[in-house]
Amino acid sequence: MRRPDVRKLLTALRRWRPGRRMVVRGALVLGLVLLVPLVLAGSVLRAAYAGTPADDAVTRGRDALWLGHAWVDGRKGDADVAALKRRVADTGLRDLYVHAGPLEHDGTLPASAYPRARWLVDAVHRELPGVRVQAWLGDVVVRPGEGKNGLRLDRVPEREAVVASARQVLRAGFEGVHLDVEPVRSDDRSFLALLDALHPAVRAEGGVLSVAAQQIDPVPALHRAARVMGSDKWWTQKYFGQVARRTDQIAVMSYDTALPVDSLYGGYVARQTQLALQATPPGVDLLMGVPFFHTDEMGHHGHAETAVAAVRGARLGLTREDGGRQRFGLALYVDFAATEQDWRAYRQSWGTR
Fold first, then answer.
1. What is the reported pTM?
2. If you ran DSSP here, which 8-state letter would residue 112 be given?
3. What's the mean pLDDT in 134-144?
4. Contacts from 123-130 at CB under 8 Å and sequence distance 24+?
């Protein structure tokens, strides 16, 4: 093997070193800029998951369960209601959000979408006295310039149609409306305008209005940064409060966080619980979402976003922020994907009546 020409190597290094050093230094700086906030955020979330929830941070009898469309389209029968009774008896479950939609993109809802609604309401009243059956209505929200495949909340006729659909399901026997339209951008005034019309209309029919809410900025202005990347996942705490004040019940969709470890996810739920408690008026029910589903994809890691972590996180947040609050509960998503382990976590960690 020939020995290298040392003089040529030194000359090449002198030419290469200044530019290469700048690149390496730049890469190191960029890496630190990205890494340090992640490390700090991870430390904060792990700390939020530490500690012990208060013994009385347990069910207040205001919990909810999302149910799939099979309950109102004829696929479910009396045996399924009996099984549901065995599953939730003696728990704090008070509300069932039954998928009765989706809404049409113009805000209307065909009655043919929920032919067995009256049967279900009667069966639940018979087998689970005191449990309310709400119509879960939703659609994808689009804004001007985003096409026609969604609901335009900025248009008055569409908002009026949603209100009419709410009256329709209440007159069909449902005892409330659970509205889940998303994504709604933080500070979207048209969504508030919809709630301003929808809430009194639902109350006039003797029902309750529940809203599925997006998560609150865990750090200031995160919703703006996320929007640049095409996501409208977070609301400001102020906007969350504005939405909550226009409802009887608000349920935070505290899942699909992309967090990879259960301790980080549990800490995140604890923090979301505290932020939501701060923003929700005392006269409104606040429910924290618990994942009863197990998909593995970019936004949701089933091994990390567990029912155990969510329940413990909610209990920790409640303990730290407002342990005496009674208008608080858990919302379980969703019945058809739930496992025995999920139900065990709910019963054992959150308690029974």
1. 0.88
2. G
3. 97
4. 123/78, 123/81, 124/81, 124/96, 127/81, 127/82, 127/84, 127/85, 128/84, 128/85, 128/88, 128/89, 128/93, 130/94
